[in-house]
Amino acid sequence: MSTDLETAVGIESHELVHFVTQQTRFVLINNIHQHPAQLPSMYELEELNPSVSESTVYKHIQKLIDASIVNEVALDDDQRRQSYPWKFYGLTEGGREFLEEYNLLAAEETLQQIYDTISDKPEKMVKYENAPRPDDV
Question: What would the pLDDT profile of 51-78 be if each residue is shown by its tens digit?
């Protein structure tokens, strides 16, 4: 059974499942999913993955964007505030549907509870978590 996402990116479902479940990409998807607003900034994704280089986080997010699983969402110019992030990363509607179809988002509540228990977040990360986010994702 082919989904709109598979048709759009030209990948068979089993290939797409393999692609999104690659360790780093799947961790990033889960980071997005567990974030309180489900729209973390790049800095937040990097902080949640200290064993992965910043360039690797960026590279895998870009691959997920290219595969239409994740999208980059930016604040409008008039909403941006100095020293706060203005680009965020969230699941696309098609990406979310695909992940749900293959039961890859089943642990949403557990992931969010785990995220809430992180007690040693740097001050900058707490600040970024509370930054304004775009309304229309």
Answer: 999 999 999 999 999 999 999 999 999 9
- The b/e string for 111-123 (b: 16+ C-beta within 10 A; e otherwise) is beeebeeeeeeee
Cα dihedral sign, 101-46-49-58:
positive
**pLDDT tens-digit series, residues 104-134:** 888 777 878 888 888 888 999 999 999 999 8
Question: What CA–CA distances, in Å, run from 119 to 28, 114, 125?
Answer: 20, 10, 11
Distance in angstroms between the alpha carbons of the first and the last residue of the chain: 27
Residues 6+ positions from 105 with CB-CB distance below 8 Å: 33, 96, 99
> How many Cβ atoms from other residues are within 10 Å of residue 106's Cβ?
11
Nearest to 31, CA basis, from 23, 93, 119: 23
